[in-house]
Amino acid sequence: QTRSYHEKVLDHYSNPRNVGSMSKNDMSVGTGLVGAPACGDVMKLQIKVDPSNNTIADVKFKTFGCGSAIASSSYLTELVRGMTLEQASRVKNTEIAKELCLPPVKLHCSMLAEDAIKSAVKDYYTKNPKAKQTDLGMSGGSMPKIEIEQVTTTRDTGA
Ligand code: FES
């Protein structure tokens, strides 16, 4: 019994799917940029949304991190393509870790992928508030933990 990475990790690591990036300025693109405090690794995940049904039409990622983080993001891109934003924001890192057979010490690597997709969906909603209303209705939903630089400033009216 070797202690090497599981073959699924190696497959995604040596042949990562959907590497790349999209224009942040595209209103149909949501960008998630997250970091893992435990190790300093960083993941950027972008989704392109079909506004007619709020599903993910395309996904790209760039990960500066370990093999498990790269494999997690690669697998995540395959997983969320075609999902609704609502479904994608409910993807759990445990699902990714299970598929890739990640050992406990590498769980935070898959957490990075969960944070990244939540953050990308949140960014899309910030850019397209109407989509959020449609998806979440009156429930309000739950807010992702990681904030990215999407600060809305309200101007003082000076009245
Ligand atoms: Fe940090 Fe894997 S060691 S993301």
From TrEMBL:
<keyword id="KW-0496">Mitochondrion</keyword>
<keyword id="KW-0411">Iron-sulfur</keyword>
<comment type="pathway">
    <text>Cofactor biosynthesis; iron-sulfur cluster biosynthesis.</text>
</comment>
<keyword id="KW-0809">Transit peptide</keyword>
<protein>
    <recommendedName>
        <fullName>Iron-sulfur cluster assembly protein</fullName>
    </recommendedName>
</protein>
<keyword id="KW-0408">Iron</keyword>
<feature type="domain" description="NIF system FeS cluster assembly NifU N-terminal">
    <location>
        <begin position="5"/>
        <end position="128"/>
    </location>
</feature>
<keyword id="KW-0001">2Fe-2S</keyword>
<comment type="similarity">
    <text>Belongs to the NifU family.</text>
</comment>
<keyword id="KW-0479">Metal-binding</keyword>
<comment type="function">
    <text>Scaffold protein for the de novo synthesis of iron-sulfur (Fe-S) clusters within mitochondria, which is required for maturation of both mitochondrial and cytoplasmic [2Fe-2S] and [4Fe-4S] proteins.</text>
</comment>
